[in-house]
User: What shape does this take?
Amino acid sequence: MSGRSGRALAKSEALICGSITVSMNVQENIQFDQRAFRDAMGCFASAVTVISTTTEDGKAVGTTVNSFNSVSLDPPLVLFCLGREATNYDHFMASGRFAVNILRQDQDHISNGFASDGANFFQTLEAETSSLGNPLIPDTLATFDCKIEATHDGGDHIILIGRVNELRHDPDGDPLVYYRGRYSAVAAKS
Ligand SMILES: Cc1cc2nc3c(=O)[nH]c(=O)nc-3n(C[C@H](O)[C@H](O)[C@H](O)COP(=O)(O)O)c2cc1C
Assistant: This one.
């Protein structure tokens, strides 16, 4: 699907988290419960990223994203999912490139900033520019500089696949974690 207007999930799903089981079948309109879907997905702890790009006139913009993941080692591909109604949707599509900024544990204010004002929050930071021309948040845990390789329909989101051109990471720092709708932190098992 190429347009921005999305459609909901189109197949039956059974989501199981702890002792709660919820059946969903969107096509037949049976028990579609978005709250339960969100709550169950919240069991999947993730790191927090800001995905950045530039507007056509060169302004740095970004969006807080936890749907980031790796796809392929060879070639090196990553993905994230972007809401079709996101403010910066057209900028990602037009630039054809993005950077992934993985936030450190103490950078929750940056996550909140890009979640609420992704069009302007770079103005509060001293961003660097990547080789591909993407803005980079200073002092993050890791960055991936990517060209958009493909896009795929993801219901009310679009799935963007990026080919990694350059990366860097800090082997010692800890990530900001998002879990059950709240920020959290990693703790090593003893
Ligand atoms: C922790 C966290 C993770 C998020 N993950 C995503 C995501 O994966 N994809 C997405 O499109 N929006 C995600 N959002 C929401 C966007 O950051 C942003 O709030 C949303 O696009 C609305 O802002 P906008 O109207 O300026 O686009 C996330 C927000 C937070 C706080």
Remarks:
- Residues 1-17 have pLDDT under 50 and may be disordered.
